[in-house]
Structure formats: C-alpha cells, structure tokens
C-alpha cells in the first residue's frame, strides 16, 4: 500500500461535539414543517439523531418528505436550509466543545509534519468553520481544505454520496490509497468507502458502552478498517492501516 500522507476528518462528533446542538435546532424546524402540513408527529433532537445521523439538513428534509409523503418546493427547502444554518451556528458559537482528546492528536500531527490534514463534512461550510473556530481547531486546517458536501460542490449533496470525498481528493491532489478518513457515522463511513478511502471508525462520541459497541459493529460491517473508541488510540489505528 502506498504511504499515507493525508488525513481527512469528518467534523460533527468527530472533531467537534456538535451533533446534539445541531439536532436541537433541526428538530425545531422539522416540527415547524410538519405542523404546517397538519402532521401530529413531533421530533426531539435525540429522535432526529436516531433517524438521520450523518445527513446534513438538506438530506434530512429529503428523507422527511419521503417518510411523510409530502413535497416541499425548491424555494421553501432553500429558505429552511438557510434558516437551519443560522440557528445551528448560533448554538455552536455559544456552546460547542471539542471531542475529547482530539485537539491533542491534531497538535501531534501538526508537530510531526508527516501528514497534511483536511476536514470533509456533510454540513454547510459556514457551520463547519464556526465549529472548528469555536474550539480552536481552525489553526490545523487551511480554509481551502475544509470541504462541505452542502457548500463545496456544484450540486449540493450529503454523505453517503461519495462526491465530497472525491472532490477533496481532487483538490488535495491525492489518490484514495494515500489518505485515511476518520468517520463516526454510517453515512459518513459509507461516503469515504465508496470513494475507496480506508476508514477509521470513531465511536467515542456515542453515549454508553452498548451504543459504542453497536456502532463499532455497524461501521466494521460497512467496511471500516479499524475502530477507535478514544482519540488516544489514533496513532495506533493509523499504524494498523499503514501496515495493511
């Protein structure tokens, strides 16, 4: 296998503990959309995470329309996408925290000089930048190497579509076998795997041992090369992939 020379990091709940904050805002808007159409169902942030984790808001709205069998106009969808972005960013700028142990690993990677680093996310670019700035991780990533499936592509999409990873490879001038992706969700892992990028499946942000074990099995079954429960294991996980 060629030498690994770049690490692609997912953002939400991989670098920054942002999913719960984001899903609180998303649930409010999803409930508003359902209420407008006289549906009685309502989501909490937690329920939304269970149904749609790993998707960006646009992807969630597509799934919501399919689940409840209604159509949103393009104009309404765009209005809500913008509204969601603003609401989530407010929450992130107020409360976002880094994932436990990740910043120390980013610092080690930067000091070693062995690997380039990029962020590859489904979330809107403004949101990703707000997240990493809030927790002081922006110094590890050039802004031109922060990629968003919602903002960086000619046609917005969401993981598990591999388009954002293929775009990141092209911009960073890497082959898939020169890169490792770190992902915490099934849709994120699948996006990288479909782009032929080896994946470290990170489960440390899930609450409770049972949920971590369940996700570890899911990510492994999808094709993640190794599972990482704690960022302290990152170096070892990377060595395992490099030894393949």
From TrEMBL:
Pfam families (UniProt xref): HAD_2
MF GO annotations: metal ion binding; phosphatase activity
Cofactors: Mg(2+)
Cross-referenced InterPro entries: Beta-PGM-like (IPR051600), HAD-like_sf (IPR036412), HAD-SF_hydro_IA (IPR006439), HAD_2 (IPR041492), HAD_sf (IPR023214), PGP-like_dom2 (IPR023198)
Stored Gene3D superfamilies: HAD superfamily/HAD-like, Putative phosphatase, domain 2
NCBIfam families: HAD-SF-IA-v3
Protein name, per record: Uncharacterized protein
């Amino acid at each position: 296998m060629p030498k690994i020379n770049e690490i692609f990091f997912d953002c939400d709940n991989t670098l920054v503990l942002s999913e719960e904050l984001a899903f609180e805002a998303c649930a409010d808007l999803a409930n508003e959309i359902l209420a407008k159409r006289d549906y009685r169902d309502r989501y909490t942030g937690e329920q939304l995470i269970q149904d749609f984790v790993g998707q960006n808001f646009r992807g969630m709205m597509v799934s919501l329309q399919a689940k409840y069998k209604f159509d949103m106009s393009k104009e309404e969808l765009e209005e809500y996408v913008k509204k969601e972005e603003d609401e989530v960013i407010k929450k992130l700028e107020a409360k976002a925290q880094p994932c436990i142990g990740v910043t120390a690993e980013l610092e080690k990677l930067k000091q070693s000089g062995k690997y380039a680093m990029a962020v590859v996310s489904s979330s809107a670019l403004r949101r990703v930048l707000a997240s990493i700035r809030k927790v002081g991780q922006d110094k590890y990533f050039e802004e031109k190497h922060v990629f968003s499936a919602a903002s960086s592509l000619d046609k917005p999409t969401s993981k598990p579509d591999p388009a954002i990873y293929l775009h990141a490879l092209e911009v960073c001038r890497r082959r898939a076998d020169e890169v490792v992706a770190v992902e915490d969700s099934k849709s994120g892992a699948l996006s990288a795997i479909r782009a032929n990028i080896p994946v470290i499946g990170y489960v440390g942000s899930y609450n409770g041992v049972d949920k971590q074990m369940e996700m570890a099995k899911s990510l492994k079954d999808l094709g993640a090369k190794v599972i990482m429960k704690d960022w302290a294991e990152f170096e070892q996980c990377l060595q395992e992939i490099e030894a393949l």
